[in-house]
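Tutorial handout. Part one gives the primary structure; part two gives the three-dimensional structure as tokens.
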Amino acid sequence: MKRRHQVRIKTWMALVFVLVKLMGAFVPPPQVASARLRGLIERPQFIGSSIVKEDLRPRSTHCRALDVKVWQVIVSASGLVVATTQAVRAFKASSEGKIRAAVAKAMKPFEPSRPQDEVIQRPVMGTIQKRIESWQQHATIIGGRYQSGKSVATEEALRGVRGVVRFTIGSADWADRMCKQLGVDDEGLFKEVMRRVREKLKDFPNNLTKFPILLLEVPRTTTEGINLISSTAKDVATDKIGSAIHVIVSASSAAVALAFDAGGTARQEDIWVADLTEEETKEFLALHGHENKWEDFVDACGFRIGDLVKACENL
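Part two.
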């Protein structure tokens, strides 16, 4: 609260500075006003057929005054730029500025790691999309064997969806790291970001979901923080104050998926990503130009997509 008050004071001081500069630019000093007055009074006078030359001194004074005014405008403009820059920086550093930046980031369409033309469409992707579209409460756990294609399937199901915040869990203090990655200071601001994201999603009726999504990717090497993931998913997947968050956990290994517990099977939805089918394997190998050798690949690697990817890359 104290920091927010200081930011407001700095902002008001910057605005006062700008107003003072602008007043200095447009209110002429006394000598300029006097020169203008003399210029209006002293006019050329005709005497018979001759003309009395106009006194050029007021005009010269006016030119000097004009130069002064130009410099005042330049100085005022420079001050305005500096003051505006300071005000913008102060706002970005404030809690409100951080929240707005995080909301704007979350509202961008989700972009998967792999290009769409390198991904085969699998039925499990449709299953994940239906779960997202119809979601009301409880966490979603995407499980399966190691390198069975869970991450790709989850990301492809979310392609183009707005309101997604993705984070890879690597340690027990993942919650603090997630807030820093999003650009906010603490969990309270994070929840405020997600609340505003939900409000923003009302402007996109064609979005797959009207709820914000927290996508947590858990590598198989992660052994800490599982309990916190479970409790977090349980806490935020409610709609008591209109701030429910759909937590999707993409577990790299089956062991991690089985260790997740958001309150029993009744409080979580498990989606299993199996190995490729024969038809999916043929389609995948066709993308890499090996459609005529699919049997050789299957004999050597089986139907696990991770092994097939490595085999294609090594050829």
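Part three, for discussion. The chain has two domains: 2-93, 109-274. Residues 2-93 form one domain.
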